[in-house]
Each structure stands twice: as C-alpha cells, then as structure tokens.
Amino acid sequence: MVSDAELVQKILEGEQQVYEELVRRYAIGLCGYIRQQIKNVSDAEDISQETFLKAYCHLTELRNPSQFGSWLFRIARNTCMDWNRKRPQSFQSLSNDIPQPESSISSVQNPWDCLNRLPEKYRIPLFLKHHQKFSCQEIAQNLNLSLPAVTKRLSRAYQMIRNELKNQEEL
Predict the structure, then answer these.
(1) To which H or E segment does residue 6 belong?
(2) Closest CA relative to residue 142, chosen from 152, 127, 155, 156
(3) Are 42 and 63 in contact (CB under 8 A)?
C-alpha cells in the first residue's frame, strides 16, 4: 500500500487524480468524526466535502506529508468550529426548544449520550478506537499525539463514562 506521504508527493508533482485515493482512505472516518461534532448527517457531509477541498487547496502548506491524516482531522475540527460559529443562533437553540417525548428507556441504555457529553479531547480518540476501529498507534498518528497520551485519554474517557453511568443508575 502506498503511504500518505507518497500520495501527497505525487499530488504536489502534478498528479491531481491521486487525491482521490486519499479521499477514499479518509472519507468514512472523517465523515463519522464530523457527525459526532455536528449531529446532522446532511451538514456533516457538506462539511466533509469542504474539509477535503480545503485540504487539497492547502496541500502545499502541509509540513510533514506523513501526517496527512492528523492534518486533515485538524482541518475538519476547525471547519466544524467555524460552522458552529456561523450557524444562526435560532438553529443552535432549536433542539433545546423542542420538547423531548417521555420515554421509559433510561439514558443509561444509550451510551452515545455519555459519549457526546465527553470533552472533545477524550471523545475523539474513543470514537476513532471503537467506531473507526483504529489502533492506539493509528490514533496517535492521526491526532499527532504520543502513544501514552492516547492510552491515557482513552482510560480517562472510559472512567468518565463509568462515572456517568454509575451516577445515572443512582437516579
């Protein structure tokens, strides 16, 4: 398999069609990551496309081509933050204004609720580990973190979820 660095080099040398391979490699994981941030499939797809376009347009600014994945995820994170800032205030508060139906299903049975409440620095590695099936080494490379930092963040995320579930059970 050709490395990201080799593909980036080919693109910079004029083989633009090679970018399609990078898009194929990262499309599913990136879109899933963005959905975790935005919570709207349609908007997530738009932001995903915008992220890939920004990455392509600024590929010459990538200092270390072997870090393409982590660079792409940083662009996605920044694009999500921009999108949230530009989003009309009425849309941001809309979901809070809609009454939720009463349900007999406890939120303990929905682990995604716990995941969504985690701080981003813990939520992203956990998402990549369990949803995208990344190894800890791949997470470290994609997020530009050391391996011990990834394992510590995962450990803290698990602990936060355990505490949240324990607190919900007590209610």
Answers:
(1) helix 4-12
(2) 127
(3) no
Q: How far is the C-alpha of 75 from the C-alpha of 55, rounded, in Å?
A: 7
Which one, of 92, 93, 131, 97, lies nearest residue 111 by Cα? 131
For residues 118 and 126, the answer to whether their CB atoms sit within 8 Å is: yes
pTM of the entire predicted model? 0.61
Question: Is it the case that residue 5 has pLDDT exceeding 90?
Answer: yes
Give 149's Cβ-side CA count (13 Å radius): 11
- 58 φ/ψ angles, rounded to the nearest 5 degrees: -110, 20
Residues in the chain: 171
Q: What's the pLDDT band for 92 if we cut at 50, 70, 90?
A: very low
Tens-place pLDDT, residues 108-143: 455 566 777 788 788 888 888 887 778 898 888 777
The DSSP 8-state label assigned to residue 144 in this structure reads T
Choose among 69, 72, 61, 50: nearest CA to 12.
61
Q: Could you give the CA distance from residue 160 to residue 72 in angstroms, rounded to a whole number? A: 27
The separation between CA 149 and the C-alpha centre of its own chain, rounded to angstroms, equals: 17
Q: Return the percent helix, strand and coil in the chain, to nearest 5.
A: 80, 0, 20
